[in-house]
Write a structure and sequence with these properties.
The chain is α/β, with parallel strands linked by helices. The protein contains 18 helices and 27 strands.
């Protein structure tokens, strides 16, 4: 079934299947269920409250919250007024929140599930606030009081396909986030394409845990889910994530590479690789164990398992295939509304991000940069006309910033990112991403950043995984030295890794070294560690422990 907007899809299910379960929000180990009809009443009452502020048409209203039932309800209430949503990553500090609220010209903000709003509150300027007491936030008007005193909005605004729907601020791997503008029609086309491409039943079960602030979760889970009349489940906390996912058993599961690595690590903690290999070699027992692992991971029913946002090592994909989980890697970005290239169950080639999907034209520039065109490209960066002009070619293609290559069957492989390339003092340019993928096959590594500006050969900055941290220094040194020994012969002479440096600090969102979407902020990592490059390079040790 096709719809013209996310709101049209919701209104359809609200009227035709009001008793269908819509949102499952966990509290203290139990799920609170909202049907489409019940949620519709709350959404309409919050929409009435927003309307009472008498904002101009297409005003900007922000959402600051982790994924939860109220995030989706807030988004729909904003849509019912014809306003523009400004999603904000829930992990940002007060200064960054203020920066986005001011730049986006947000007229109000809805504050939901957060770790500690008291540390973020100072970033909210003097604008109307709706806080959700259910998540222990009481600032401005509470959601609950507004639901109690407002009547449901009846005459909702009809969303025009050309109207601005949202401004999504990029996660900022290279500096100040830019506000990417997308229309109502762009989201509709992406979701209509997904429902056409995917063999998913009506009213599927979906699990929403990657930030809804990000374009992938917004399009694949929220928007497409609403087009399908899905039931959405959420995680209560990091501690309950595994049990919440297992209780959902979603029909579609989407993750980023770091999640797949973490899952693998947890499985191998309870069942070492040698033992797993032995069990999988026994036909009947192997089948039982595969089924048990898939169920424990929450993927016993998933007919589409996907990975995106960053490259995933082929070795990890092959490992999962052995336990009965086939990962389909895709490619897209905020600016193209993730309508780009996908591997699909019936056409999946490991090591690639798939073929151009319906409605997408792609090509390579003379420099090998991937250029993409579709009908869902952003309308521009908010208040940034010069940066907008820079990112488009004269014939309307989006410059992705990624370097790639097509094989003879039309499958695209990403070979690096233009801005990630660096030059050693030998004058040679190095693309770190492919080398990092090779190193990530070593399960003792959790995070890696290949660097080398100002030294003759590149070095690898490494954060150990839990399994790596459980080993002594001698064993870790041997493990990483062996990885270098295997990888270096496959590299050009100027690419060979000279040293591995083990970081004493984990790179996290909190210390500003990874983005909310788990991408390493390479420039920030380099800013901190570049003064040590020459000393590390001159060391006699192949593996060096920082500090």
């Amino acid at each position: 079934m096709k719809f013209d907007s996310i709101l049209d899809a919701f209104l359809h299910w609200e009227s035709t299947t009001p008793n269908q379960e819509f949102l499952r929000q966990p509290f203290n180990g139990k799920f609170k269920i909202y049907t489409y009809g019940e949620a519709g009443q709350e959404i309409r009452k919050i929409a009435s409250a927003i309307k009472s502020w008498n904002f101009e048409d297409n005003s900007h209203v922000a959402i600051l919250s982790k994924n939860c039932a109220h995030w989706i309800m807030a988004d729909l209430a904003i849509m019912m007024n014809g306003h523009v949503s400004i999603p904000i990553y829930p992990t940002l500090n007060a200064e960054s929140i203020n920066q986005i609220l001011v730049h986006s010209e947000s007229q109000a903000i809805i504050v939901g599930k957060l770790d500690d709003y008291s540390k973020q509150k100072s970033g909210v300027p003097d604008i109307p606030v709706i806080s959700i007491e259910t998540y222990d936030v009481t600032d401005g008007d509470t959601w609950e009081s507004l639901v109690e005193k407002n009547e449901p909005m009846q005459d909702v605004v009809q969303n025009n396909p050309k109207d601005l729907a949202t401004i999504i601020y990029t996660s900022g791997t290279t500096g100040m986030p830019k506000g990417v503008m997308h229309t109502v029609g762009s989201f509709a086309q992406v979701s209509n394409n997904f429902t056409q491409l995917l063999d998913v039943k009506a009213h599927p079960d979906l699990f929403s845990y990657l930030p809804l602030t990000h374009i992938a979760e917004r399009c694949i889970i929220e928007s497409t889910g609403l087009f399908l009349g899905a039931r959405f489940s959420f995680s209560e906390s990091l501690e309950t994530f595994a049990s919440n996912l297992a209780s959902t058993q979603p029909d579609i599961f989407f993750a980023v590479p770091r999640i797949w690595s973490k899952f693998q690590e947890k499985i191998l903690e309870s069942m070492p690789q040698k033992k797993l290999n032995k069990i999988l070699s026994i036909p009947i027992l192997g089948g039982i164990v595969k089924k048990k692992i898939r169920s424990k991971l929450g993927m016993s029913r998933a007919n589409l398992v996907a990975s995106g946002a960053a490259p995933l090592a082929v070795s990890i994909m092959e490992w999962y295939r052995k336990i009965g989980i086939t990962i389909n890697q895709g490619y897209g970005m905020t600016e193209d509304c993730i309508l780009s290239h996908y591997n699909l169950p019936e056409a999946n080639k490991f090591g690639t991000v798939g073929k151009a999907t319906i409605g997408v034209t792609s090509k390579l520039s003379a420099e090998g940069e991937i250029l993409v065109k579709n009908n869902c490209l952003m309308t521009g960066y908010f208040k940034e006309p010069e940066k907008t002009a820079e990112v488009f070619t004269h014939d309307g293609f989006l410059r992705t910033g990624d370097v790639g290559e097509f094989d003879h069957d039309g499958y695209l492989s990403i070979t690096g990112r233009i801005k990630d390339q660096f030059k050693t003092d030998k004058g040679k340019y190095i693309s770190p991403s492919p080398i990092e993928l090779e190193f990530s096959k070593n399960t003792d590594i959790d995070q890696i950043c290949i660097v080398g500006m100002g030294i003759p050969q590149p070095i690898a900055l490494v954060v150990l995984s839990e399994s790596g941290n459980s080993k002594n220094k001698e064993d870790i040194s041997s493990s990483l030295t062996e990885t270098m020994r295997l990888i270096n012969p496959t590299l050009e002479a100027y690419e060979k890794i000279s040293k591995v440096i083990i970081m004493k600090e984990v790179w996290s969102i909190e210390n500003g070294l990874i983005t909310p979407t788990m991408k390493i902020k390479r420039n920030q990592v380099e800013k901190i560690h570049m003064p040590m490059y020459k000393q590390w390079f001159s060391s006699e040790e192949d593996v060096i422990f920082e500090g």
